[in-house]
Amino acid sequence: MVFFVPHVQAQKITLADVVAKGTFRPKTVEGLRSMKDGLHYTTLEKGGTEIVKYSYKTGKKVATVLSVADLKIDSLKQITDYEFSSDESRVLLMTDKHKIYRRSFTAQYYVYNFTTKEVTPLSTKGRQQLATFSPNGERVAFVRDNNLFVKSLRFGTERKITFDGERNHIINGAPDWVYEEEFEFNKAFAWSPDSKKLAFMKFNEEAVPTYSFPMYKGEDPTLMKNRLYPSNYTYKYPVAGEPNSTVTVHVYDIKSRTTLDVDLGEETDQYIPRIRWIPNGNELAVFRENRLQNKLDILFANPFTGDTRKVYTEENKRYIETDFLDNLKFLPDNKHFVITSEQDGYNHLYLYDFSGIKVKRLTDGDYDVTKFYGYDPDRKLFYYQAAAESPLRREVYAVSLDKKKKYKLSKKEGTNDAAFSNGFKYYINYFTNVSTPMYVTLHDYRGKLIRVLEDNAALKQKLADYQIPQKEFFSFKNSEGVELNGWMIKPLNFDPNKKYPVVMTQYSGPNSQEVLDKFSVDWYSFLAQDGYVVACVDPRGTGARGEDFRKCTYMELGKLESDDQVDAAKYLGSLPYTDKNNIAIWGWSYGGFMSALSLEKGAGIFKAAIAVAPVTNWRYYDSIYTERYMRTPKQNPSGYDDNSPLNHTAEIKGKLLLVHGSADDNVHLQNSMEFAEAMVQAGVQFQMMIYNNRNHSIYGGNTRMHLYTMFTDFLNNNLKK
Fold first, then answer.
1. Integer angstrom CA distances of residue 416 from 384, 386, 392, 439, 454
2. Catalytic site residue from 176, 563, 664, 665
3. Which pLDDT value is given to residue 403?
4. Across the strands, what pairs with 295?
5. Which terminus of the chain is less hemmed in, N or C, by CB atoms within 10 Å?
6. Partners of 536 in the beta sheet?
7. Is 589 a catalytic residue?
8. How far apart (Å, rounded) are the C-alpha atoms in residues 603 and 434?
9. How far apart are CA 469 and CA 578, in angstroms?
10. Contact 527, 608 (CB under 8 A)
């Protein structure tokens, strides 16, 4: 596969280029919103200071919808995000965003009225979360301090509709930490289509155990508050087997100002991962899932009585993937819905009616549908993304309701994704492969190219001035005869007669994928330039290869994945141009868990490993993620302990660098501290670095440069000396 050919005086990549400066980061089209007419879209441009309107038909700019400079508001210098009201007469502007966890944040919101040209703060009584227009555009709902509020834009009044919100006890309208992280959402309320009701979820965290960690002065002196002792951050975090929040669903009536409870059944140790109104607004759909996450009911709730009826049940002998939640879409006929399901061994689209009867399977084949975009009722077409041609790639397709017509809309081989207009008349295609930076194009519904929106020509020109080692794909069979996919980057000026040290990177978590046909110039390019063979292998348990491949790690996280990484190291070490005595493996989070476990199980195979923020025993990790794949510790003790890095430290023969952030709210520092203690008692020497006040991503200030400099020095010291 051809990459960029360096000329004689080509520059070399620096560590700062790939870690701090973003020298090779492709541009894309961001902040895109399809407008109500389906003929135009808007984007956020000029560093968040302008909202610009474009024509889908021509791809050309039509107007600047809003400029921050024209508003002349001192506290509004930059727009972080925005949302139009349904009639587009108003727009909500978000600014001053302060992150809480991965998806949650507080912000300041402003409402701009295009008719009166007035801009007003949504509220002056404190920062807000999740501000959302009602469908008629007359009100905005938002969360503050764990309570729900409704702002009337006509009268300027702010009404508090819940009163029991309390930190680490009750949350209204927003998920708790574990729901946000593992069910992948941050808004737990929804307006009814007629704007008369507001459905919301209430999280009672009282029984959930707390976790605490100290916060030091570090980069932010305000954390010390002029005291000599560190502050202590405490929040609710249910580890595997411990109590979760009790979640209830309620419907608030705007006119009567009353709230009713939705009947969720007698079981309380369960999950409510989504609520969603059906299109006509007559009923509220509630997703109810058991704690083992292998049975999920779709309930329809009467918003006037709270009574519910079960419409559909999805069951699986292992577990239900979370992509089921957002791929389920109700059709505008208010009679049918579409799901993605693995009921035939691969993830495919199925059409059901509101009585729960399967109408038909919409897609077929030995491949996975990876995303469902939606249904166009005018053309009777279903749009979706799939890994139909290769698990390494993604294509965009349309299939007709009668299945007689199927269109492949994406034309280029690589990784494709799409954003459709309202009405599905147009779409924007996002394409990349290993030799092509992000390439963004505008198309009509038949796939016809209208305009190139971003070709990253400037980046391509820049790349021509650098020495960029190429990435190539390979596959091999593990010791059990299972074929695994990988990519490899060989050193510049590669000499097949030399022996090069090897750095293996991986993540390896359930349904993840690192071996994909997409562009990147990153730390791995830098290492290859410096004389390393860099390789990545997706083990069993990863995505886009059918349910059995994806779920074979059930109840034994780490076992097969680490076996495969050890086999991958043996395969790489057998190549004529690699040095089998100088192989390292590294990873972050699940990948850190895998690095530590592979170093233990591959004693003598790996000379070194880097484990960043690793889970070292799944007993320490959160309930939703862990139990989905492992059940509870009580039900599956051997699954938790047999492949825990804590229990195999005496087998470590190579060098280990252990890294963690002291304020990691996701994979707690406890994992690394217990691992370090086990190694100390086993007499294993290792290196360890704790980053002050840093979360799971370990960034901020000069942190990333320090981190990757340390990684590079560790590899050089252990694989090259």
1. 11, 9, 11, 10, 14
2. 664
3. 92
4. 315
5. C
6. 487, 505
7. yes
8. 33
9. 16
10. no
